[in-house]
Each structure stands twice: as structure tokens, then as C-alpha cells.
């Protein structure tokens, strides 16, 4: 399984969902917070991580969340 780690703009979220990839998002500007929140709302990934909080201690559990079978099933269903 693969996990997409992205700033969460509309193009990357769309691509990730089309390919059934769970996502870890770290929105920075403009529409990114909207799309990053949408990812977690549909259970295609955890809550977004604020860019100032991007550390292994926050990214590792987010990746583990994405690797859960339930998250993968949601992404495959959306695909």
C-alpha cells in the first residue's frame, strides 16, 4: 500500500482519491485547508497536520492511520 503525503491542494487530493491512496495532509495556503479537511471528513486520511507541527512524532502516527485496512477500504470505495 502507498500513502500520499501532500500539502492538500485540490489537484493532489483529487489525484489521490482517484487512485485510491490514503493521504496525510499538511495544508499551508489558500484552498489547501478546505481540501485537507475534506480528506479527513471522508475518512481518506487523518486530520490535517499544521506545517509547524511536521515532525516524525506527528507524521508517523498519521501514516499508520493511513495504513489501517479501514482507511484503505474507504479509499478503494471512493476510487
Describe the structure.
This protein is mainly alpha-helical. The protein has one domain (4-12, 20-78): Glycogen Phosphorylase B (Rossmann fold), CATH 3.40.50.2000. 51% of the residues lie in helices and 8% in strands. It has helices spanning 10-18, 32-41, 56-66, 69-78; strands spanning 4-6, 23-25. A two-stranded parallel ribbon has the order 1-2. The relative contact order is 0.22. InterPro entries: Glycosyltransferase_28, UDP_glucos_trans. Keywords: Transferase. GO terms for molecular function: UDP-glycosyltransferase activity.
Task: Output the strand order for the largest sheet.
Answer: 1-2
| Element-level helix/strand string | EHEHHH
Low-confidence stretches: none
The H-level CATH homologous superfamily, spelled out, is: Glycogen Phosphorylase B
Number of domains: 1
Shape: globular
The helix/strand class is mainly alpha
Quaternary state of this entry equals: single chain
Strand content: 5-15%
Q: Please identify, by name, the CATH architecture.
A: 3-Layer(aba) Sandwich
The major beta sheet can be summarized as:
2 strands, parallel
| Tally of separate helices | 4
CATH fold annotation: Rossmann fold
Helix content: 40-55%
CATH class (first level) name? Alpha Beta
Radius of gyration: 11 Å
Beta strands, count: 2
- CA(first)-CA(last) distance: 14 Å
Output mean pLDDT.
Answer: 95
GO molecular function: UDP-glycosyltransferase activity
Keywords: Transferase
Amino acid at each position: 500500500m502507498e500513502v500520499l503525503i501532500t500539502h492538500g491542494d485540490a489537484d493532489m487530493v483529487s489525484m489521490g482519491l482517484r487512485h485510491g491512496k490514503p493521504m496525510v495532509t499538511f495544508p499551508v495556503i489558500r484552498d489547501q485547508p478546505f481540501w485537507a479537511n475534506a480528506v479527513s471528513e471522508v475518512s481518506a486520511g487523518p486530520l490535517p497536520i499544521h506545517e509547524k507541527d511536521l515532525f516524525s512524532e506527528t507524521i508517523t502516527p498519521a501514516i499508520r492511520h493511513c495504513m489501517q485496512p479501514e482507511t484503505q477500504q474507504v479509499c478503494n470505495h471512493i476510487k
